[in-house]
Fold each of these.
Amino acid sequence: MLFRIITYAVMGFLLLPLFATVITSFTELGYVSFPPKGFTLKWYWDALHRPGFGASLFLSFWIAVVTAVFATLLGTLVAVAIVRHRFVGRDLLNAFFMSPLILPTLVIGLALLQYYAVVGVGTTAAGVVVGHVIITAPYATRLIMASLIGVDTKIEWAAQTLGASRIGAFIRVTLPVIREGMASGAVFTFIMSFENVTVSAFLSTPRMLTLPVRIFNYWDKVIEPWLIAIASMVIIGTFIVLAIFNQVVSVRNLYGAEDQR
Amino acid sequence: MNTAGVSWRKWNWTPWLIVAPALAVFVVFFAVPLIIMLANSIQKMDPATYQTVDRFTLYQYGRFLFDEYYIGVLLRTLRIGALTTVACLIAAYPVAIYMTKAGVRERNLLTLIIISPLLVSVVVLCFGWMIIVAPTGLVNFVLMKIGMIDAPLQLKFSEASVIAGLAHVYFPFMALGVYNSLQNIDPELVRAARILGAGPMRIFWNITFPLSIPGALAGSLIVFALSISSFVTPMFLGGSWVKVVAYFIWEQNMILIDWPFGAAIAVILLLVTGLIVLLYSRLLERHLFAGVFSR
C-alpha cells in the first residue's frame, strides 16, 4: 500500500509539468502564473499567427518522417545481421552501432556541425536528418532485435526447403513477423526525431529551425502565454499520435528496447 | 547455405554485406566527425581572423583545466549529475517494486507515464517546470496559501530546479533499469526464502536488493552520463546563474564560434563520461562476480 502511494506520487511528479502547461495555456492573464485566471483560447489563436512557427512545424514533421524511414531500415539491417549471424567482430559491431546511446548527444551534434564545415556542405535539413538517424537508429535496432529474437529460424529454412530463395524466405516469412518491431521502431524514432533539440540546436540556422529549436531560442527571454499554448499543442499532439499508434504498437514494445540490456 | 551458429571458422561475408549500408552511414557520419572534432580540439585559432595558427597544441585543454572558473563549473556539473542520479534512484525503487506486483493493465499505464518524458520534447517539459517554479508559479502559490512563506521564493534559476527538471527527464532510464532487473529475479528464490521463514524485510535486503544492483547501476550510469551532458534544462531552469559544462560547449560553438575550444570542452566531457563508464563497469563486474562466487 505504501509503495502504491509512493508510486502514484512519483507519477504525479512526472505528469505535473505537463498538466501545468496545458492548464496555464488557457489563462486570460498576459503573463504566466499559477493558478491561471479564467478560460480563453486566444493564446492558441495568437500562437498560430506567429511567423515562422508553421514553417518550423512543417520542417520538423518532414525531418521526423525521413528520419523514421532511414533509422528503421538501417536498424532492420543491423538487427538481422547481429541476431541471425555468428561472425568474427559481431560484438564489436554491436557495440559500435549502440555507442550513440551512451555518447552525449550534444557531442554528436557538435561533431557533425564541425564536420559539415570541414567538408564544406554547410548546414542543411538533410544534415539534420543524418544527425537524427545516428541517434535514433540504435533504438530502432533494439526494438527490431527484440522482435527478431522470438522468430524461429527453422521456419525460414522450411520455406527454403520448399523452394523459396533466401531473400524470398526472409521477405515472405520473417518480415511479416518482425513487422510489429519495425512499426514500433518507426513510431519511436519519429517521435524522438520530432522532439529532438540537442542535436538540432547545433545544426540549425536562423532560416532553418525545427520546432523544438525555435522554442529553445526563447531560453533567455520572458515566457509569454502564447509560447505555453505552443508547448500545450505539442503535448496534446504527442498524446494523440501515441493514442493512434497504440493500436499498432503496444506500450510493452516501447520498453522492450530496455529488455535487451 | 548459411546455417546460423556454426560458421565460426571461416570468414563469413553475409552479415557484413547486410550491414554494409548501415556501417557506411555510421562510419562517414559518426566515426569520422568524432575524429575531426578531436583534430579540431588540438588546434589554436586566432580569434580575430578565425585562422588556424597552430595545428598541434594542448592550448585549448589548458584553457579549461587551468582556469579555476571552469573547474568550478565542472565540479558543479558533476554535483548536479550525482544529485540527479540519487534522486532518480530513490524514486525508482518503490515504483519498480510496485510495478512487479501490479496487474498487466496498471503496469502498462504506469509504463506509459514513466516513458512520457522521453516522448515529449525537453523544451516543452522545461516550460512546465518554469510554470511550477516561477515567482508567480505553482510551488510559491501553494506555499503562500498554506502560510509557510510570506513572499515568493526565488526557485527559478537555482540548482534545485535544474535537478528537479533533469530527474524528470531521465527518470525513465532508471525506473525501467531497476524494474527489468527486479523482473528477472527468479520467483522461486523468494518463495524458498519465505518457506525457510524469512520476513519481507529480510527477503528484500538479502535477495531482492542485491539482485537489483546491476539494473540500478546500469540506470545510474545512463542517468549520470546524460545529466552531465545536458544543456537545455540547465539553460531554461538555471539561466546564467547555474551554468554547466555543456552550456559552454553550446556557447563556444554557437555564439562565440570558437570551434577548437568548443571541441576541447566536448572532448573533456567525453573523457569524464568515459572514465565513469569504466569505473561503473568495474563495479558492475565485481557485483556480478560476487554473486557468482557466493552461490
Amino acid sequence: MGDTATVEVDNLQKRYGEFEAVRGISFDVAPGETFGFLGPNGAGKSTTISMLCTLLTPTGGSARVAGFDVVQNPLGVRRRIGLVFQDPTLDEYLTAYENLHFHAELYRVPKDRATERIQVVLEMVGLWERRTSLVRTFSGGMKRRLEIARGLLHSPRVLFLDEPTVGLDPQTRVHIWDYIQGLRDREDITIFLTTHYMDEAEFCDRIAIIDNGEIVVMDTPDALKAAVGKDRIEVRTEDDDATVRALREQFRIEASTTSEGLVFHVAAGEEFVPRLFAELGVGIKAVSIARPTLDDVFMRYTGRTIRDAEASTAEKLMNNPMVRARRGR
Amino acid sequence: MTAPTTARTSGDDYQYAPVIDLHEGATWLDDLRAARVVWRREIIRFSRNRIRIITSLAQPILFLFVLGTGLGTVVKTSGSFDFRTFMFPGVIAMTILFTAIFSAVSIVWDREFGFLREMLVAPVRRGAIMIGKCAGGATVATLQGLIMLVLAGLVHVPYSPVMIGKLVVMMVITATMLTAFGLFLAARIQEIESFQVVMQLFVLPIFFLAGAVFPIAKLPGWLATLTRFDPLSYAVDPMRRTVFEAVHAPASVTRTLSPGMSWFGWRLPTLLELAIAVIVAGLLLGGAVYQFTRKE
C-alpha cells in the first residue's frame, strides 16, 4: 500500500471532436516526487491537469490521483489535491484571510484547526502581515504566493501547479521557486507542475516532455541531458599546444582552439575533469563544464525548439473553433 | 475503497502533517457549511460596496417620487388617496428585482475573474454552491427592499409592525424567486455581454407586466393575460394588498388600483399567490442547480 504511486495515468485521452488534445498518455508519479510536464503552450499540459483535477472528463483511458479514480470518485480526488491555476482564481474584493477562510470552509477543514492552519500557510509565503488587506491591492507575485498558500491549506497529498510562474517578472519567479523548493522540504507532498520554461523544469525530480498531446520522453533532467550528448568543456592552460597533443594522445579527444581557450566534448564532464588535472601534465588555469540544456533535449526529441513549437501550436489552435471556445475558462 | 493516504509517520517537523479528517462523501451538513460560506461572501462583498447600495436605490426613488408624483397628477383617485401609496409596493418589488438580478450576474463575473473555478474544484456538490449564491443574492435584495421600506412614511404608509412583518416575509419570497431566476439564466453564460442581452430581454418585461407601476385592472385582454404569466405579479399583488390594508384604502380605490390577480374571474387568495411564488422559486432554483451541475 505505502508504495502505490500518487498519480497513476493509463492511456489517458481527451478529444474535442476531430481534435485530439491528449493522445493516450501513461505515467506514474511516486509519493513525494516533483514531477514536471514540459511542453509548448497547447501541447496538452493544461488539458491533462484538468482531467487529473476532475475538471474535465477524459474521453479514454483512466487516471487515479491519491488512490481515487478521477471519474468514479471526483470528490475523493478533490479532497486530496491542491490547485494553483494558470490564471488567478482569488476574490480580489476579499482580504487574503477571507480568501483562505472561504477555502477552509469549502474543503471542510475542521474549524478548530482552520485558524492555525491559515496562519501557518500565510506565514510560509510571507503574507501573514498582509492578511487583512484586500487582495486587489496585491502585486502579481503576492497573489500567486497567496494561491500557493491556499492550495496547501487543506494539506493535500498532491499539489498541482499549472504554469505557476507564467506572467511574473524574473525576480518574482525566483521567489516563487524558493517557496516551492522550501515546500518540498517541509511538507510531505507530491508536486505535479506544468511549465514551458526550461530552467524551471530543472527543479523537477522527473520531467515528461509533451508535444502534440503525446509524451515524447520522460526521465530525470540529468538523464535526459546525458542522453542528448556530451558535456562541453572549456580549458585554459599554460600551454595550449601541449594540451591539444596530450588530449589527443592520452585521452583520444580532439580539442579545438577558440578565443575562450580550448574546447572539447566528453560524456560525464564532471568525472572527466579530475582525471584531466591528474593526468594532463600541463598547468591548468581555468576549467568550465557546460551541460546540454533542456532546450537541447527538447530539440532532440521534437526536432524543433520550444519557441518554434509554440508558434506552430498557437496557429493550429486558432484554427480549431472547438478548442478556442474552451480555452481560457 | 482503500486510500493510500494515511497520515505520515515520520516524527520530525510534524508542523505540516495533515489536519483533515478524510471522511468520505459530503454529508448534508458539509453542504450546508459550503452554502453558508458562499452566502457569507455575498454579504461581505455587498457590505463593502457602498456605492452599489446607494446607486441601486436611486432608480426606485426616482420612480416613486418623480414618476409617481407625475402620474399622480393624471390618475384619478377618489378623495385624498396618494398615487404614490399605490406605487410603493411596486417600487419595493422593483428594488428587489434589480438587486436580485444584479446579484445573480455576479456568477458570470466570478467566471470572468476566475473565482468560480475555486468553487467548482472544491469537494462539494455544485448544488450547495448554487444554493449559497441564491441565499446570498436573496438576502442582499431583501436588505435593499428593507431600506426602501424605511421611506414608507413619505408616501403615507404607516409603520405598522403587522404590515412590516408580512411585507418582510413577502420580500424574502420575492427576492429568492428573482435571484433564482437570474441564476437560472446566468448559470451557463460565459460572457458578461451575453448576460446583459438576456437581461434586457427579460427584466424590463417582468417589471412592467407585474403591475408594479400601473394597475392591471382595466388592461386589454391580451395584456391582462400576459400579466398572469409573469411570476412577479404573484409577489407584487400580496404586497400591495398588505399595504392597502394598512392604509385602510377606501373600497372604491381598492377596486380600481388593487383588483388583485384572478384566473377566469376567480380572485386568488394571498396565500395561494405566495404559494405560487414559492413554487416558481423552487423550480427556478432547481433549474439553476441543474444547469450548473451539468458537466462541461
